[in-house]
């Protein structure tokens, strides 16, 4: 039981990070109909900026958190305005290729701006170990699970009750009708990119707190993408839950079936789920009316 | 008289042409300059080794240039980034040899990348000294123009596991390796010793390249009761493993391999990284030779590049020293043939940061002497184990 619990808690912690990044994917897809292949890289850049703030401005956790959120907003807005907006109306394939190009540029920028060495994000929090009997968990891991749950609730309320949230849903459902109703699609898109950058960035910062920062961190995006497919590419909350499911499945498979199964298990689960629900567990079925 | 002059002119033209042809056959040399090319991963995670190796080359080149160059010719260093992508390594080598007309090559990127460019280098015949990723394929069978400074991965692992086995008789062993050629080499070396010494291996894991969470793997290691653990990760993987072991409240005897023996890793591992054993063939920076190397680098490198120095800078420096010294021995008109012959004659060349380097007829591998080191968290350094 102790073995199972340790696997479960570690799975939840890494799954929460996948979930946050997966939510970033879903926010952009839901608002713009685009899969952002630079999501992992945007996550990494925000984490590196947080590290820079912690080493140059202040190591205070509040300063680092606020600075990282602000930086993520700016990063999301710049990418939307400079790279994505000019692609509006272009074929989806071309736009997706642009995000792939963006991913390569952001990935390479790590070595140009920072360096190839791993770094630890030290904000005086997140690294200490809490022991409950024989089970150990880092405070950063507890914090990321709690953060994901809080964000899931906040995002649910945002889409259901806030004007902007309803506007985003309207643009996602039918951008032309939304336009006729006076909703600015470009503004909604900009907001989606900023929100996605912040949500995924939070995941990146927590990863850096619990593990470390390195130019390999972009690979988190590759783990989070299956999570969003599992939860539903258009389901922001579902993607968060998908992350948790992938994290737990990976860890249980790794712990009970062997190291080699860790990577395979998550994808095997996706195949099975997609065969039953091709639009993901929480995704909405596309209805085409003729 | 006119006939006499015409004959003399023809002879002079012939002599000029033959000299020009000789120079044309061996590119990369002018009266004032000699070009040395290199292809390394300068972006992406493996930049940690590529940047460091290129810094080592730069130190040796700056040192030679400060002393007047190679017999009066300044060395120009041409460096290409391959991003650790084999297709780009091939492209980079072609660019350096065909466009930049390098006279000799250093480097070159990772093991897979070096192997991939071997036919190209062999066909070109350009003198090459490899220093980043020494794997047997690069010197077995020996290639006329390709020399390798270092020690084989397999020998390194055998040395480390033998040391740990002698120090920890009768203990239970655990091993985890990456699912690529690097991991296979580590596993092969490990298995050699396991077979010879009949070690009791209770955990054997294999992780996918790029894996960042090792919680289930380390939990399995704990459950297996392993007391000696060979962590076959490179950089980030080893850090993650050590942190997991700390979280799980266990502290086995740990051995790591030289690609991960870089000092910043110890800071990130925290106290969990104290007492780790490592194997290497270059001197640790905490020793006198390491400190002297850093002092030398300070005078020759811009300050921004100093932070990129690690053990790969030492291997890069040593290889560049050997190459420069061979070209130098060729005198005023060095050629590829002479440089290759002089490289072959390399005997006990001192670099100050590893055992003396030697090659020989048919011997293209320097076979460096290995040493065991142990990490010290309080000083964030590795120290030799006597």
Q: Name the structural class of chain B.
A: alpha/beta
Question: Which whole number gives the mean pLDDT of chain B?
Answer: 91
Poorly predicted regions of chain B: 15-24
Portion of residues in helices of chain B?
40-55%
CATH architecture of the largest domain in chain B: 3-Layer(aba) Sandwich
Please tally the β strands of chain B and state the result: 12
Strand arrangement, major sheet of chain A? 1-2
CATH class of the largest domain in chain B: Alpha Beta
Low-confidence stretches of chain A: none
> Number of DSSP strands of chain A?
2
Integer-rounded radius of gyration of chain A: 19 Å
Over all CA atoms, what is the radius of gyration of chain B? 23 Å
Tally of distinct domains of chain B? 2
What is the total number of structural domains of chain A?
Answer: 1
Give the strand content of chain B.
Answer: 15-25%
Number of helices of chain B: 13
Going across the major beta sheet of chain B, what is the strand order? 7-6-8-9-10-11-12
Broad shape of chain B: elongated
Largest sheet of chain B: 7 strands, mixed
CATH H-level superfamily title of the largest domain in chain B? Response regulator
CATH topology of the largest domain in chain B: Rossmann fold
What does the model show?
The complex is a heterodimer of chains A (290) and B (386). Chain A has 290 residues and is mainly α. Chain A has helices at 2-32, 39-56, 61-84, 92-113, 139-161, 163-173, 175-180, 185-210, 220-231, 236-257, 259-276, and strands at residues 129-132, 135-138. In chain B, helix 8 runs parallel beside helix 9 (263-269) and helix 12 (311-329) crosses helix 13. Mean pLDDT of chain B is 91; it is low at 15-24. Chains A and B meet through helix 1, helix 4, strand 2, helix 10 and helix 11 of A and helix 2, strand 7, helix 7, helix 8 and helix 9 of B.
